[in-house]
């Protein structure tokens, strides 16, 4: 399930609120323009999510604390049929997209 639509709805609503706030308070009261606040808020949310994912998500299925031993075996067997491996820490430049 993709959450792209939810992100669009939330950021549009947040942009509307910031614009209304700027119009009611006057843009001279705000230190930054409303779109800059939007960028700061969304960047902060992204940073918080990245830190949470780094500390809360396991490196591979065998170290997942929320899976039972039987579930770990099932996940490893499913990955064996895909032939993708459990974990790969080797950096591959051909998978990197530089814009």
Spans with pLDDT under 50 lasting ≥5 residues? none
Major sheet description = none
Q: What is the 3D form?
A: elongated
Radius of gyration from the CA trace? 21 Å
Count of all domains: 1
Strand content: under 5%
Straight-line distance between termini: 27 Å
Secondary structure tally, helices = 3
Give me the secondary-structure category: mainly alpha
| Average of the residue pLDDT scores | 86
Number of E-state strands: 0
The helix fraction, in percent, is 55-70%
**H/E series, N to C?**
HHH
Q: Mind explaining what this structure looks like?
A:
This protein has 99 residues and is mainly α. It has one domain. 60% of the residues lie in helices and 0% in strands. The protein has 3 helices and no strands. Helix 1 packs antiparallel against helix 2. It is elongated, with a radius of gyration of 21 Å.
Task: Record the SSE blueprint.
Elements: H1 4-25, H2 34-56, H3 69-82
Helix pairs in contact: 1-2
């Amino acid at each position: 399930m993709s959450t792209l639509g939810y992100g669009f709805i939330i950021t549009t609503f947040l942009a509307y609120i910031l614009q209304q706030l700027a119009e009611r308070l006057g843009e001279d009261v705000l230190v930054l323009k409303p779109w800059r606040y939007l960028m700061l808020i969304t960047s902060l949310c992204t940073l918080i999510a990245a830190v949470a994912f780094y500390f809360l998500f396991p490196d591979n299925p065998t170290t997942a604390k929320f899976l039972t031993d039987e579930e770990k075996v099932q996940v490893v067997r499913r990955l064996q049929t895909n032939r993708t491996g459990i974990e790969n820490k080797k950096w591959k430049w051909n998978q990197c997209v530089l814009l």
